[in-house]
Amino acid sequence: MLEKMEGIVLRTKDYGETHKIVTIFSREKGKFAVMAKGAKKPKSRMSSITQPFIHGQYLVQTGRNLGSLSQGEVISSLRGVREDIIKTAYAAYVAEMTDKMLEEKQPDPFLFQQFLQTLIWITEDKNPEILSLMYELKLYQKAGFAPQLDACVNCGNQNGPFSFSIKEGGFLCFRCKHLDPEAFGLTENITKLLRLFLHMDVARLGNISIKEETKLKLRQLMDAYYDYYGGYFIKSKKFLKQLDLFRPED
User: Fold this and answer.
1) pLDDT digits (tens, 9 = 90+) for 37-87
2) Distant-in-sequence, close-in-space partners of 83: CB < 8 Å, separation ≥ 6
3) Which one-letter DSSP state was computed for residue 171?
4) Quick one: which of 56, 103, 136, 174 has the fewest CB in 10 Å?
């Protein structure tokens, strides 16, 4: 059966001398993989529509096994992502996280829109570190292991100061901090940012300025949390950590 759907290419894998297996995150069908015959040929119509991060309309022949890509049309090439090494690195990171953490063929139009808007904002020079943190927390929600950031995970107290406990899975208030002596103490600013990143639609992100030391602290928290709960090795994260070596001073 032929189905038309809007999607974004997450990754490709060579198959034989001329074909590719293309993994697409679609609005209508969720994540799925298809065979794109002839896509490795430079002059093939399939070549341009099966590049990573391409946002397009795809006509897919579906069946019980691996479907095939019949044709496609580019909606947006998101070219700016590929023209800057830092943008490429962050786009690759959120794409790999999406690929690893989503089950096959489980539609989620909201998450699709969050992913698309994240890539658009990265293209348009919004801060990729902040965008990746926001999107990552939404992926954690989808996967069922997002931290509890609205109240103390133990007693439900909504008033800070809070610590962030990886072991307990979220905020601990000062009365419950004894449950995890290794919990990270949080400033009021970081507490507010974590809540904002979890709940805010990426499309509503305005111009936000965060100190480098704050971004670094947030990234360290998220990485430690993912290492404890996530389970999948994310290859693109290694390159992002190398980029940290070139982080400008405040």
Assistant:
1) 999 998 888 999 999 999 999 999 987 788 999 999 999 999 999 889 999
2) none
3) E
4) 103
